[in-house]
């Protein structure tokens, strides 16, 4: 019994050591969650990355955490290679950063924005500055020492908002590549499935199918009804699967994020047609706002204006944060009144002016900025099938 008791105590002590060693390094810093694990006896490189995901917004800076350990400890740092790669849903790989000793190289659109954090020995974390919409996704951290290597993964998420989009030509007019270009032109990107699913959880309800960035076609239904796939089917994100990217045509679900500029309704004594609206914004040191920019302003700047105005794509929209009966219904959101005649119909206009200093957000420039993102909170911020002809 005494021997059994000593063995039990030893096991209990070992269990306690293992439990403590697997705690996060700093519980107060959710962005720097790094789990340390006991090494095996092979001397191989062991890589640990942040569990879950790290979150930022467009224009922000973020650390992608990655640490490694190698035995023996006196391994020459000049022989350790650190490589970061972005992994797409199609299992394609985009080089981001590589370092071998003191030599470093940054690739493509990441040039000038990515650097090693260098928080101490065994730190392979990188910092991404001035985060863009395209930075969203999954990243692989690979550490190599001679013949040994290991990898870990980090998911970079963005605060933003998903919005459905179709062009002046009407619904179901876009193949995949046209949808991709259309979202980019409206200061957004094609949304991912996880972004659309999150928007659905927050109340997005839209009865038209649209392309997502992985080439699938889906649509979110919060309130089942016969005209949207039968009333007796459960709520959820309906999925048509992966469709032919050139031949088939649908709408698009776009995603955008925080602005580094300001959207505002230009106060004028009279309403204007589209051409006059463009000139009016230019005279005011701005440009006509894009659809994604208006959504970003509604979501992050809480822009609330019960006045319809022109946007860059020739549509008429207005943002409502606090719903009231005379402003389009009981739900907050960006109201869409369609694509009227550009020459003869008269409205106000929403302009966009970028900040000169993106970090301070204080002084402003006179050129329009391509940048904005949105986050979805409320139920059906867009009225269901809200396309009232004008």
UniProtKB/TrEMBL annotation:
Keyword list, A-Z: Disulfide bond, Extracellular matrix, Glycoprotein, Hyaluronic acid, Immunoglobulin domain, Repeat, Secreted, Signal
Segments forming domain Link: 161-256, 261-353
Entry similarity comment: Belongs to the HAPLN family.
Residue ranges occupied by any Ig-like domain in the UniProt entry: 44-157
Subcellular location as annotated: Secreted, Extracellular space, Extracellular matrix
Statement: the UniProt record of this protein carries the keyword Repeat: yes
Biological role stated in the UniProt entry: Essential for the proper localization of brevican (BCAN), mainly as a perineuronal nets (PNNs)-type deposition in the brainstem and cerebellum thereby playing a key role in the formation and structural organization of PNNs. Contributes to the formation and transmission of inhibitory GABAergic synapses between Purkinje cells and deep cerebellar nuclei neurons.
Signal peptide interval: 1-19
Protein source organism: Fundulus heteroclitus
Protein origin, superkingdom: Eukaryota
Presence of keyword Disulfide bond: yes
GO CC annotations on file: extracellular space; perineuronal net; synapse
Disulfide bonds: 207-228, 306-327
InterPro entries in UniProt: C-type_lectin-like/link_sf, CTDL_fold, Hyaluronan_bind_Proteoglycan, Ig-like_dom, Ig-like_dom_sf, Ig-like_fold, Ig_sub, Ig_sub2
Name the UniProt record assigns to this protein: Hyaluronan and proteoglycan link protein 4
Name of one Pfam family that matches: V-set
GO molecular function: hyaluronic acid binding
A single GO BP: glial cell differentiation
């Amino acid at each position: 019994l005494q021997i059994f008791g000593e063995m039990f105590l030893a096991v209990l002590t070992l269990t306690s050591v293992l439990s403590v060693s697997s705690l996060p390094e700093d519980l107060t810093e959710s962005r720097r969650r790094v789990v340390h694990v006991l090494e095996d006896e092979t001397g191989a490189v062991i890589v640990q990355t942040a569990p879950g995901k790290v979150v930022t917004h467009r224009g922000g800076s973020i650390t992608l955490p990655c640490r490694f350990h190698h035995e023996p400890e006196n391994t020459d740092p000049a022989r350790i290679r650190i490589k970061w790669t972005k992994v797409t849903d199609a299992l394609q790989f985009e080089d981001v950063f590589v370092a071998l000793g003191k030599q470093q190289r940054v690739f493509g659109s990441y040039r000038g924005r990515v650097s090693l954090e260098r928080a101490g020995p065994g730190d392979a974390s990188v910092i991404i500055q001035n985060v863009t919409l395209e930075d969203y996704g999954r990243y692989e951290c690979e550490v190599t020492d001679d013949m040994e290597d290991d990898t870990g993964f980090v998911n970079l998420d963005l605060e933003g908002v998903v919005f459905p989009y179709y062009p002046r030509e009407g619904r179901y007019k876009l193949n995949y590549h046209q949808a991709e270009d259309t979202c980019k032109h409206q200061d957004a990107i094609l949304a991912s499935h996880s972004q659309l699913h999150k928007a659905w959880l927050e109340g997005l309800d839209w009865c038209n199918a649209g392309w997502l960035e992985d080439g699938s076609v889906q649509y979110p239904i919060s309130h089942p009804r016969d005209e949207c796939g039968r009333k007796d089917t459960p709520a959820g994100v309906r999925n048509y699967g992966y469709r032919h990217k050139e031949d088939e045509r649908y709408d698009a679900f776009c995603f955008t994020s925080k602005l580094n500029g300001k959207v505002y309704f230009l106060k004028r004594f009279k309403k204007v047609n589209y051409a006059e609206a463009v000139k009016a914004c230019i005279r005011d040191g701005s440009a006509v706002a894009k659809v994604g920019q208006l959504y970003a302003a509604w979501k992050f700047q809480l822009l609330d204006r019960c006045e319809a105005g022109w946007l860059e794509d020739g549509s008429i929209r207005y943002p409502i944060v606090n719903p009231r009966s005379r402003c389009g219904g009981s739900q907050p959101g960006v109201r869409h009144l369609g694509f009227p005649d550009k020459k003869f119909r008269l409205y106000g206009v929403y302009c966009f002016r970028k900040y000169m200093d993106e970090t301070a957000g204080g002084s402003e420039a006179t050129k329009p900025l391509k940048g904005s993102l949105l986050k979805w909170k409320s139920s059906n911020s867009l009225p269901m099938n809200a396309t009232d002809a004008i």
